[in-house]
């Protein structure tokens, strides 16, 4: 890396880190002043959301640089290397082309959509919004550079940029003349709209193929939005408007805060302390380590909102505890769990905490469907417990079958390990108490969680040296950027879907085609399982869930219950072949063939599917705690 490149990389990471740190401190100080002195900092909410905009876009730049954007990735099944390279080139050129258009959308939005500029603290909203064109310009350059082309073929990347500029001519005209376009410019704009309408269907098919070939999902979603809006005669710069709107929503701030909290936990020795604590407490019970494994995975996933972090961070230590090591030979004495069982358990537990607060998907479901987030938190508890218990019971059965010997309970050992892990164990109770009591808002809980974990892991336990705090941020930023990029562009697609009244029309058609509520719920489960194994959970929430809300209304399904059904299906979808995310992550982490991972996970998937059906058809499980209040 050149000196300039190193400087720019340092600047990117620094802007992200400072933005997120200032957000957490602002929210924490504001909450402290409100609770203690009954006052508050001015413009805290607006400043925090606009700092999030900057952090999200710059972290998306880093995600592009690290090639960490989420994708469907069926390309992994292709063995032919030349075919892989061809698909990589095709998806790289598409990404370059689309991000070029997004750059011009952003420039138009800032000039026209943010006029007159509004004051936010010491700056205007335009000052923060300039991160939009900056980010998309850098992302365009990086997609072009990362496309695997050699020699003269690199001109194809330049051609993709030029084609993006040509397709952005209506935006260029609007930027120059605003709404007073000359006649020739209006004619060209009308020509683009007519052309987009004529080629819409083949273009949509090509975009779907690009998604299957491994194109980043946020690019796929952006491409869908642009062609659909353009073909309907709309202004495509509304895409940038929706990105800005999505990333300046107050509740979205919780996503990077809780993600950072999860990474501080996973990068520290908190996992080891929790494993030792639960092992010492449950060792005297049949299936005790199974219970400990399930609870620890649920704890970590509830904070990160991403099953991958749990599998990658805790998979090694938990596998060693369950099976004695990385190879099956260590199980010859019969005193450890079989390797295939241990891998299947850890893979299936990677997403098992998504129904417990402060789960990020629960927050997004509430934001997307305008449902009370507190009610969603409460609704997820009993189905989540049912899922935990079903996994634990299955583990107990395997324990008896495998004849796992029990250890003698040692009160001194349990007390000592509990003392060491008490700060981590107290964390969810403190946060849930603060939120459920109404003392703190959701984003304040996120800030409090991050600051609490920082103090515990960096200052008190000293698991993470102060000089390595930046590296924790660096590991979390690509995850944050990938998630927020998808959420932002999904907002644009959702805008089009809602604007065309597609959900209401689809609901009327379904109501006419299907009369039985129970049959509809079965079809809903099957659809969501397929969705869960093809699309990441954040895209599904933003794109698929709005389509389901009118259907739920048509069949009399409570929105809170719908949210639980949606998420529990997504959890099972992570384990569903052929492209369930957890299956790939487990194959990578445990160095096992993909087909073997599918076989190991099969019994756990069946258990989860049973819980899905029970939760779907007995809504009282989800609504019981809500009805108590």
Explain this structure.
- By secondary structure, the protein is mostly helical.
- It folds into two domains: 246 residues, no CATH class; 376 residues, no CATH class.
- The protein is 76% helix and 1% strand.
- The protein contains 28 helices and two strands.
- Strands 1-2 form a two-stranded antiparallel sheet.
- A hairpin with a 2-residue loop joins β1 and β2.
- α15 packs across α27.
- The radius of gyration is 25 Å and the shape is globular.
- About 2% of the residues have low confidence.
What are the salient characteristics of this protein?
two-stranded antiparallel sheet; mainly alpha; 629 residues; 28 helices; 2 strands
How is the topology of this model organized?
Blueprint: H1 3-37, H2 44-65, H3 81-113, E1 119-120, E2 123-124, H4 125-129, H5 131-146, H6 155-167, H7 169-177, H8 183-212, H9 217-231, H10 238-247, H11 254-267, H12 270-282, H13 288-304, H14 307-323, H15 339-348, H16 360-369, H17 373-402, H18 411-436, H19 442-460, H20 469-499, H21 502-513, H22 517-534, H23 537-543, H24 545-554, H25 559-573, H26 581-590, H27 594-617, H28 620-627
Antiparallel strand pairs: 1-2
Helix pairs in contact: 1-2, 1-19, 2-5, 2-20, 3-5, 3-6, 3-7, 3-9, 3-10, 8-9, 9-20, 10-20, 11-13, 11-14, 11-19, 11-20, 12-13, 12-18, 13-14, 13-17, 14-15, 14-26, 15-26, 15-27, 16-17, 16-23, 16-25, 17-25, 17-27, 17-28, 18-19, 20-23, 21-24, 22-25, 22-27, 24-25, 25-27, 26-27
């Amino acid at each position: 890396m050149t000196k300039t490149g190193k400087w720019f990389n340092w600047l990117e990471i620094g802007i992200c880190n400072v933005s997120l740190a200032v957000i957490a401190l602002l929210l924490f100080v504001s909450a402290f002043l409100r609770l203690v002195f009954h006052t508050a900092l001015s413009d805290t909410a607006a400043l925090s959301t606009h700092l999030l905009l900057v952090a999200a876009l710059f972290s998306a730049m880093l995600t592009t640089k690290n090639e960490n954007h989420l994708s469907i990735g069926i390309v992994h099944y292709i063995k032919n290397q030349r075919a892989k390279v061809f698909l990589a080139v095709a998806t790289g050129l598409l990404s370059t082309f689309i991000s070029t258009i997004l750059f011009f959308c952003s420039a138009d939005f800032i000039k026209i959509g943010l006029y007159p500029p509004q004051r936010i603290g010491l700056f205007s909203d335009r000052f923060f919004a300039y991160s939009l064109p900056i980010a998309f310009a850098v992302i365009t350059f990086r997609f072009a550079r990362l496309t695997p082309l050699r020699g003269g073929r690199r001109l194809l990347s330049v051609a993709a940029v030029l084609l993006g500029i040509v397709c952005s001519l209506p935006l260029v005209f609007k930027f120059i003349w605003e709404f007073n376009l000359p006649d020739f410019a209006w004619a060209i704009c009308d020509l683009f709209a007519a052309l987009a309408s004529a080629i819409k269907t083949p273009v949509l098919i090509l975009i779907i193929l690009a998604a299957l070939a491994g194109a980043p999902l946020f690019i796929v979603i952006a491409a869908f939005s642009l062609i659909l809006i353009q073909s309907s005669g709309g202004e495509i710069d509304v895409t940038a408007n929706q990105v800005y709107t999505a990333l300046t929503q107050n509740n979205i701030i919780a996503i990077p805060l809780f993600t950072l909290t999860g990474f501080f936990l996973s990068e520290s020795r908190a996992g080891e302390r929790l494993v030792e604590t639960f092992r010492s407490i449950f060792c005297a019970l049949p299936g005790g380590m199974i219970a400990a494994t399930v609870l620890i995975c649920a704890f970590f996933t509830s904070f990160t909102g991403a099953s991958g972090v749990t599998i990658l961070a805790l998979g090694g230590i938990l596998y060693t505890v369950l099976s004695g090591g990385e190879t099956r030979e260590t199980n010859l004495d019969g005193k450890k769990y079989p390797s295939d069982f241990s891998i299947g358990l850890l893979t299936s537990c990677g997403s098992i905490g998504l129904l417990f607060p402060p789960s990020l998907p629960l927050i997004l479901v509430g934001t997307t469907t305008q449902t009370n987030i507190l009610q969603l938190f409460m609704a997820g508890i009993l189905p989540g417990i049912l899922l935990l218990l079903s996994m634990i019971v299955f583990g107990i059965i395997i324990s008896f079958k495998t004849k796992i010997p029990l250890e003698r309970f040692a009160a001194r050992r349990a007390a000592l390990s509990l003392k060491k892990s008490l700060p981590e164990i107290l964390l969810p109770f403190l946060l849930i108490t603060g939120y459920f009591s109404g003392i703190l808002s959701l984003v304040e809980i996120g800030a409090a969680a991050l600051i609490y974990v920082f103090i515990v892991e960096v200052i008190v336990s000293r698991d993470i040296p102060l000089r390595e705090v930046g590296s924790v941020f660096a590991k979390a930023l690509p995850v944050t950027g990938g998630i927020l990029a998808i959420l932002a562009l999904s907002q644009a697609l959702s805008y089009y879907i809602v604007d065309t009244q597609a959900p209401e029309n689809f609901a009327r058609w379904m109501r006419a085609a299907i009369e039985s509520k129970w049959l509809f719920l079965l079809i809903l489960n099957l659809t969501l399982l397929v969705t869960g194994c093809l699309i990441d959970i954040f895209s599904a929430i933003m794109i698929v869930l709005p389509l389901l809300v009118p259907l739920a209304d048509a069949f009399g399904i409570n929105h809170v219950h719908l949210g639980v059904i949606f998420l529990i299906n997504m959890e099972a979808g992570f384990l569903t072949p052929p492209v369930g995310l957890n299956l790939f992550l487990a194959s990578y982490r445990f160095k096992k063939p993909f087909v073997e991972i599918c076989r190991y996970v099969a019994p756990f998937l069946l258990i989860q599917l049973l819980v899905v059906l029970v939760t779907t058809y007995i809504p009282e499980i989800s609504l019981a705690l809500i009805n108590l209040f």
